[in-house]
Each structure stands twice: as structure tokens, then as C-alpha cells.
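Hi P.,

Sorry for the delay on this. The queue was packed all week, but I finally got your sequence through. Input first:
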Amino acid sequence: HVVAYDFGIKRNIVLKLVEAGCKVTVVPATTTADDALALEPDGLFLSNGPGDPRPLDYAIETCKQLIGKKPIFGICLGHEILGLAFGAEIFHLKFGHRGANQPIKEHATDRILITSENHGWGIVSDTLPDFLEVTRNNLNDHCVEGLQHKELPIFSIQCHPEASPG
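Then the structure:
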């Protein structure tokens, strides 16, 4: 059972989670940590969405409260919210990552992935705490494209894994 926070979630993301065998409960972006946990999820999903993540104090605070309670996965805006919840800084990209042509290096495999993206903000890598590992970088501008916690089941990616960047 996945509780998906809707920051602008696309239907195809929900469909892909269902295809993977998940029961998905989509909740509004303003859902409290207690209300999400009361749904007894196996994991929490922080969705994509538009714009600058920095003003989303309610989402960042909720994410902080959820850390360590359940597995968390974020994409795009959810990736950025997770970074902010861990104390990282966000910057505005000079040129946003748009479309299905962003080259990403996946560090664990040394593979180069061509990803679908649609965002204008990135995580400042040297502001990440030591317990987070950068798992992917954009090869054009070295933007942080993936994170994972070294001990907790928490990870995120900047791209749209369902290949529908909006």
C-alpha cells in the first residue's frame, strides 16, 4: 500500500504503481504526517509537481516528520522536497531540464540513461548531509539526479521514470 502525496501527480505515475502491484491512495499535498500514517501504508511517495519547492513549507515539514517512519520515494518535485527536508539547498537552473533527452549517469552501474524530465530547480550537492548518497548526476550540468539514504529506506530521483515528463 503506497500513500502518494499529490503535488501535481500525473495519472500515468499512479497507473505504473498499480501495474507494479501497489494499492495506491492519493492524498492532497497538505495531508499531515499523522493522517498519512493513519492510512497504514507500506511506503510513501512524494510526487512530481510544478515550480519552486522552497515555498512548500508544509510539505517539507511533513516530509521531516515522515523520515524514519516508513520507506519514502520521491520523484521530481518530491525529490527536491526530500532534499530540502534533509537540509539541502535548492538552486534555479540556468536552463531547465525539459523533455526526453537528459543524459544521466547512474553511479552504481556506470550506465548512462537518457531520461524524461521537466523541472527548473536542482539540489546543491555539497549541501547534502553525509548520510545521503548521490546516486545519479546529470551529465550536462552535474545536477543531483538521484539520492538515497545510507541507512533508511529513502530514495529519490529527479527524472520521470514513467517517461511522461508532462
